[in-house]
Amino acid sequence: MSMKFQFYNCRETRKILVNFLETISREDLLAIPEHFNNNIWWNIAHVAVTQQLLVYKLSGLALNLPDDIIAKYAKGSLPSEEPSEEEFNSIKKALVDLVVKTEEDYNKGIFKNYNPYTTSANVTLESVEDAITFNNFHEGIHIGSILALRRALGIAS
């Protein structure tokens, strides 16, 4: 599978996430149904953060999201407070912009090093290509979580 396809796949996944942000009420985005420990909003912000950690941080490069956003939505975090309008819009924009930037950076050849990392799914990433490919899998998992959250909230598909 080509890297061009991996970036295309990620862009298409991100369109789905942006659509959730545009079509689900803020109240429902932030609701945590019984038997769940997070919400739709957290899942969406989490995928933006995780992509930065897997691709940029493990390559030893600067992240393209603020440290407070990284901490708020990284693996192991839980929804804590309602996002401000600025944070909401920033994440929504980042969903699209960060995939474009990553593809540009990849094509420029800036990813020269990678620190191997074993994910919680027990998949060892040994290159930035592994990270980009795994990230698409990770985002698919979170779309599944969002679909389950929508069902639990009684949101029509």
Order of helices and strands: HHHHHEEH
CATH fold category name? Four Helix Bundle (Hemerythrin (Met), subunit A)
Can you tell me the overall shape? globular
CATH architecture: Up-down Bundle
CATH class type: Mainly Alpha
Helix content: 55-70%
- The structure class reads mainly alpha
CA radius of gyration is 15 Å
Largest sheet: 2 strands, antiparallel
Task: Report the end-to-end length measured between terminal Cα atoms.
Answer: 31 Å
- The overall average pLDDT, rounded, is 96
Helix count, DSSP H or I runs of 4 or more residues = 6
Overall tally of structural domains: 1
Strand order, main sheet: write it out: 1-2
CATH superfamily: dinb family like domain
Strand content: under 5%
The tally of beta strands, per DSSP, is 2
Please mark out the parts with pLDDT under 50 across 5 or more consecutive residues, or reply none. none
Question: What does this molecule look like?
Answer:
The chain has 157 residues and is mostly helical. Helix content is 64%, strand content 3%. The protein is built from six helices and two strands. The protein has a two-stranded antiparallel sheet. The protein is globular and about 45 Å long.
